[in-house]
């Protein structure tokens, strides 16, 4: 169990670092270009946050699995619901500062988790498929662009009842349909023999194969159907033949799930091999304080960037350099903090609120 938890904390740290890079690129106004660095950092968009949600599901799955043996599942459901309410309210209060915040969506994912936490493995996978398919149905019935100003990434009627509902469940940054499928998939993963070599090999084999087939097929179709012509109709076709996170089509959900599974298994395998490695220990410490650093990268990190007048017109290299500095500081701060305390400041507050 210990190596599994270390591996998961390391994966959580990597997911956090990926989200910091993506968000710093966004707020620093990095323009799209043909450089290899831009392409590499763009691969993190929607992937790091998907891994973050899946890891949350894994954590809930572990909690339920250990409690089922004590016949305390009703207590676990209540704990998950309390966490859901706290996350939703914190995220809602936080969203005026950071509109792309994921915490308010987490609250709704957790409510779904409280309902399905005892479902069978097969039922969990069917729920994942249902959430993805329901989004496709919603996409065919409603206007995905409604409420959005895509030039500024501002959601115009966010604080109206209709706009809030639409944003949370359909066309926000991380809507319940289909993003909650990531959390449910994480619960399913938590029930699997994550430490067994045969399972690790099978996951890596299938995840890598599905990922490569999906991305290669999409790339070939894009180059065949939308070669060099640029207009609105072709642009929409290009979106349908992509695995970008907005809109979160089934291709994105499958691709992001596979990449997340590969990273998670790799982290667990590395933790099994080099459990005492100092780098792994430092990364695992960051993973334990992920909530604190997630909030801090906006309030502190972006706050400093604003003071330095760096919110806009920056290069990929500059954004990546600033993100790297913040990540290094997170490693240093987490080591100092956990030398004195058992949990991070926001993690402690969150536990008190949901006790």
Automatic annotation (TrEMBL):
Entry annotated with the keyword Membrane = yes
Q: What Pfam families does UniProt report for this protein, alphabetically?
A: DUF418, HGSNAT_cat
Residue ranges annotated for the DUF418 domain, each copy included: 250-354
Record has Transmembrane as a keyword: yes
Positions of transmembrane segments? 12-30, 80-97, 103-119, 124-144, 164-190, 202-221, 249-271, 291-312, 318-339
Q: Which InterPro entries match?
A: Bact_Transport_Assoc, DUF418, HGSNAT_cat
Q: Cite the Heparan-alpha-glucosaminide N-acetyltransferase catalytic domain residue spans from the record.
A: 4-204
UniProt keyword list: Membrane, Transmembrane, Transmembrane helix
Name used for this protein in its record: DUF418 domain-containing protein
